[in-house]
């Protein structure tokens, strides 16, 4: 593997080099404590060393509010929303967020493949960056290393004086060509250690979750959870949406829009007449966790939680998906050892 | 609704923060107003059901006279719209109504003041059936316009009922809890596009509680972030006295 | 297995754009329900199976799923029977012939007709559940020789709320249809049976070896109907059920209709009962 070196003081120049080729989106500060993926105007604003962004790259392919069509109420005609390929460089993406996109790709191309999402997915060049696991990351437990390069065109691994640059595809090669990068003098270091773990191999997790359907943990969590839906809205693999109509003030037209929705919200399953099919907070929490660790992984063979830690980091009630899963694991093991 | 809906505006003991007639009417609303007939309230008029197609009512009910009047309005109106937090959730309390909001806020959050009289002013819905709510303290013109257009179109406006947190996270706002503030967003009905957190402020809960709120869990969150149980409930009471009193009994 | 290996290779589609279609006829069925006859542009055939649904939309108001009530044997137009319950359905109730609505679909997994052919068909419909079941009923009637007996149990809250009363009258007359109806509360004029729908089941004349059954009705109905069918000895394999859930997209994308691992808009709304047993949240 051809490993190159990008010194810290040349990062800005590197970003400028990328900006000459395509629009670049990269992590930047949006508040004292928060970093978000935004379009880069100033190469100096890019932050490659960060914990997590509140919203993942998903927002570029499935925007939080996404117009589907606009309509004219005077003649009942409509115009489909213009959907363009993103056609950009996504710089400074963590491995778990790239893995989440594989899952969304699956969702939007299985069954009825969806043009809106799949069109936006085109033309993207992925430049990953390694991360130092913080108190919430646990992607290692679902098989995603901080150094995982799958899906990237180029990958930056943080070392003390800068970044080691791996070029992984032709697109990646094209990206760095013309930018002088000396060969790296040492190999890739070992990835950082995780502080959070799920104590069970992925292969057995589906079995454990199947046995946890009636665990008391769901009711216990329901006492602490306010049902605010934040854990859904920040999850990089959540894709549920609602559809709304916006009518112009003049009542001559408007738009039909889809908006992110979440299974932790009470009205998610409410139908006309007031019946709510999954009304209890315990059932909703179970559904959320099972979707990540059972329902969709049964179907695809992959966990739908990528271990980014967002749902836990942004839950004001302090509910931790890792603790929930570990509790299911320990209860399962206890039952099985006592049974023997 | 027939050709030109007949619309009336009424005002109870609100804080004047919503004051429909002082609305800085935007051009669009002026356009809209061309599609309606504004009718005046005349006390002596004999009761005629259906006299108003839409009645917008602001303010909360605090005297027996108010109660008589709202019943009159209800009888005459096909659609009754409660406008603003006072009309929707009940006055936050008598004091707030007569003083600048900032001063009240300070006092409410001050340590030892207990501001809530045992009988808070009533929301309209405590006395009559309310068809539509325009929430917020003060309500926003945009939202008022949305409801207005929907009703003129002859359609029931959609009322958002998930938490402020959803809209806040959609906008990728930094959560004010991370800045050491305390926020009622998790149990407050959205629809304001997370107005306050978008300006770096906490949500005081002006749009009322979400349906079936888990208040015990909210109390735990507030206490975990440094409030006493008493302070936590004071915060929750600010805009929700009426509902919370109802839950208790 | 890699994630992208389990993906279909179809071309991406515009999934959310409706086809503007014309309402040809509007017929009041009851105080709350209306029957609409709709035609796709150019009289194109909808190409549906009984049990499937379409997403119907009115711009500025919204979109919702509705079962197709007509049989695919009657081509060129299709029918929707819609109850007035909220935003969109109130607006639909105001439609007049010549008005346009947006149609997407047909969607979902309907009734597996191959499994029904040659069998006695037992239909259990509660309330508005008759709307989708009518599609199957008329299919069987139009292809009478492909099926065995046709047995219909229909329950309604009251006699004023009975749907398709002219068709019911015809089914009652038809010697080829074994039709039973009951109402929860009868008006003084009502001369038929009074009682919940399950009271019809014990008295049915069934040939258990050759009966297939399809159930559709309000959520509370299913468990009781199942008990009644089981006590008659009908095997689970002979039972199909059409479920209702909140739906937005109809194409397996928006997540609303999910019951455990199953999407009702894809795997349902019509399920084979043995498949439902692994879905704890279903019934
Ligand atoms: C597969 C299927 C078939 C159906 N067939 C029929 C039928 O043949 N006739 C009939 O009258 N009704 C049918 N329904 C129910 C019908 O979809 C609802 O009555 C309708 O959504 C109510 O919309 P509304 O805007 O009038 O009500 P509101 O309460 O104002 O609904 C607001 C929104 O909530 C959602 N929603 C509410 N109720 C339902 C629901 N039951 N299912 C899915 N989404 C819902 C819709 O997206 C709707 O836009 C069917 C539902 C499903 C899932
Ligand atoms: S973020 Fe926390 S409190 Fe909010 S719904 Fe999720 S688990 Fe519950
Ligand atoms: S479930 Fe939580 S930790 Fe897992 S991917 Fe979603 S937000 Fe990240
Ligand atoms: S700032 Fe308030 S509303 Fe926004 S996410 Fe945080 S708690 Fe929720
Ligand atoms: S954020 Fe809270 S206090 Fe502010 S407008 Fe919205 S509901 Fe009212
Ligand atoms: S209705 Fe959207 S997934 Fe089924």
Structure report:
The complex is a heterotrimer of chains A (340), B (249) and C (283). Chain A is α/β, with parallel strands linked by helices and 340 residues long. Helix content of chain A is 31%, strand content 20%. In chain A, a hairpin with a 2-residue loop joins strand 8 and strand 9. In chain A, helix 6 (202-210) crosses helix 9 and helix 7 (217-224) packs across helix 9 (281-300). The model of chain A has no long low-confidence stretch (mean pLDDT 93). Chain B has 249 residues and is an alpha/beta fold. Chain B is 38% helix and 10% strand. Chain B has a 5-stranded parallel sheet with strand order 2-1-3-4-5. The termini of chain B are far apart. Chain C is of the alpha/beta class and 283 residues long. Helix content of chain C is 18%, strand content 31%. In chain C, strand 11, helix 5 and strand 12 form a beta-alpha-beta unit. The mean pLDDT of chain C is 93. Chains in contact: A-B, A-C, B-C. At the A-C interface, strand 4, strand 5, helix 3, helix 4 and strand 10 of A face strand 4 and strand 13 of C. Bound molecules: flavin-adenine dinucleotide, iron/sulfur cluster (SF4) (4 copies) and FE2/S2 (inorganic) cluster. Flavin-adenine dinucleotide binds next to strand 4, strand 5, helix 1 and helix 3 of chain C. FE2/S2 (inorganic) cluster (FES) binds at residues 247-250, 252-257, 263, 265 of chain C.
Can you list the strand order of the major beta sheet of chain B?
2-1-3-4-5
Average of pLDDT of chain B: 80
Count, helices of chain B: 10
Shape of chain B: globular
Query: What proportion strand of chain A?
Result: 15-25%
Could you tell me which ligands this complex binds, including any ions or cofactors?
A: flavin-adenine dinucleotide, iron/sulfur cluster, FE2/S2 (inorganic) cluster
Number of domains of chain A: 2
Show unreliable segments of chain B: 94-102, 109-119
Helix content of chain B: 25-40%
Instruction: Look at the structure and give the CATH class of the largest domain in chain B.
Output: Alpha Beta
Strand-residue proportion of chain B: 5-15%
As for the CATH topology of the largest domain in chain B, it is Rossmann fold
Biggest sheet, spatial arrangement of strands of chain A: 1-9-8-7-6-2-3
Main sheet summary of chain A: 7 strands, mixed
Alpha-carbon Rg of chain B, integer: 19 Å
What is the approximate shape of chain A? globular
As an assembly, this protein is heterotrimer
Total helical elements of chain A: 11
Distance between the termini of chain A: 50 Å
Tell me the domain tally of chain B.
Answer: 2
